[in-house]
Write a structure and sequence with these properties.
Layout lengths: L4 E2 L4 H16 L3 H6 L6 H17 L1 E5 L3 E9 L2 E8 L8 H11 L6 E2 L14 E7 L15
Antiparallel strand pairs: 1-2, 2-3, 3-4, 4-6, 5-6
Helix pairs in contact: 1-3
């Protein structure tokens, strides 16, 4: 996998993302309808989408390489959120790629989880994967395999 390059996002690019996302909502994209359940007016959709885009990109560092776009957001303490999607917008199927991205952007001795939430918290987005990471290299989740050294 090629190295990631930090990619600043301009206000114009953010507005283009908002407009493209609003178009997806208007066209009835299932992921957008799920994320915007109950929103029926365009003005409300624009407002909600602008807030979502600002939350993801406004507090994030964006990285790109030849295959992936990653928004890295610090959550507080040592916690980091990675929102990962392929540049070609195809589904991510290789766990090895997620492991490599975590290693490159957070660290090889840092742990991360991918959450399969309760249905009440489910946001369906088939083209993006999310990792919640600890940047503390000594932190270990209390579950998983423990290999004796």
């Amino acid at each position: 996998m090629s190295p990631f390059i930090p990619t600043p996002t301009t206000d114009t690019e953010l507005e283009n993302i908002v407009n493209a996302t609003v178009r997806r909502w208007e066209l009835g994209d299932p992921a957008m309808k799920s994320m915007m359940a109950g929103v029926t007016r365009r003005a409300d959709a624009v407002h909600a989408i602008r807030a979502m885009v600002k939350a993801e990109f406004g507090n994030s560092t964006i990285y790109n390489n030849d295959e992936y776009h990653v928004a890295q957001r610090k959550l507080g303490g040592d916690s980091v959120h990675l929102a990962i999607r392929r540049i070609d917008r195809q589904p991510i199927t290789a766990w090895e790629d997620l492991q490599t991205i975590k290693n490159m952007l957070v660290g090889p001795e840092c742990e991360a989880v991918e959450l399969f939430p309760a249905e009440s918290r489910l946001v369906k987005n088939i083209i993006e994967r999310h990792l919640w990471c600890s940047a503390d290299t000594t932190f270990r989740f209390s579950f998983g395999f423990f290999i004796e050294q």
